Amino acid sequence: MPVICNISEVVGEALDKGIRFAVFQDRGDDAVHFFGDDGTGRAPLSDSCFFAMPWNGNPEDMVRIDDCLTVEDMQALQDRRVHADKPWPSDMPRMEYLTAVSNIVNDLKEHGGKTVLCRTITDTDTHMDISGIVSECFARRRDATCCFMYTPVSGGWLIASPELLVDVDGKRHRVTTMALAGTRNAEATDAEWDEKNVDEHDMVTDYIVQSLADLGLDPHVSPTETLRAANVCHICNVIECDNCPDDLTGDMIARKLSPTPAVCGTPKSRALSHISVYEPHPRKFYAGYFGMMTPAGMFKAYVTLRCAQISQTAYCIYSGSGITAASSAENEWRETEMKAEPLKTILKQGNRTIYNI
User: Fold this and answer.
1) Tens of pLDDT along 9-28?
2) DSSP E strand stretches across 54-194
3) At residue 105, what are phi and psi to the nearest 5 degrees?
4) The pTM is what?
């Protein structure tokens, strides 16, 4: 898989060619990987690939982009821009969101559990410099795993995720994941997390530990820490398992874990019912997962968070929060605003109103 230096140039040219492609940079890694496929049946250059699973998807829904093109191969192709899937065109109104949270809270007070409600933040009167936006996001968000994926079916998706779903090291037979939930402003000075956030996080940890045990693994939970992601912090536990059998693949573990209560809720059936009733928009790839695998037995998948679907003339940011019986609708709204702000700032700086072109 090619490693690229000029993200903006490569993304711009790949969009002009209309190919399926992804650029991917792991958290803390300087290397930016390019995966491209022009759909002509080229043999892959390696067994490495990029993948992305939509929200609550089935195996056949996964997008897979094999390592079929070098950057030079891509540059030699003729331009053939295509009309791709467009971003969702409307915001979730504030009062609609607040009413939904209040209704969910009332149900959770009676039944217990947690639901993650997602809202959309959009702009449809723009002229987007997509390649510049992607480059800026990768440069700013070194605290996250960054990706830009494009296919004619999915459209363009920009992601800067702080949350690891699963990392499988086939050589050492080790599985690593994390429980990541609870949110507060990164500038908060409180020494302790409040009960609502701790309870929300514990639901995620318990679910992941039980899911791994169901697969026959022996999970070890690290001490709790606070993880900063741009302007917010989350409660985090790294969870590791040794002696993973060869026949238990990263894909199998990812499908077992996803969606976790961090992006769906618990019990899952009731959370999915709330999402179906109260979210007016399709989640598409939001809260699914994405990543890369290599022939050396490495499989890494991250939860698709802090993400937006973008086109040349519009964007749609997806931002969610965990609702429990202790939630305040106004606080949850502010949480979604905080989570969306870093990406919103990058997108706003990368576009001009159509009337100013």
Assistant:
1) 999 999 999 999 999 999 98
2) 63-66, 114-123, 126-128, 145-151, 155-161, 164-169, 174-185
3) -60, -45
4) 0.95
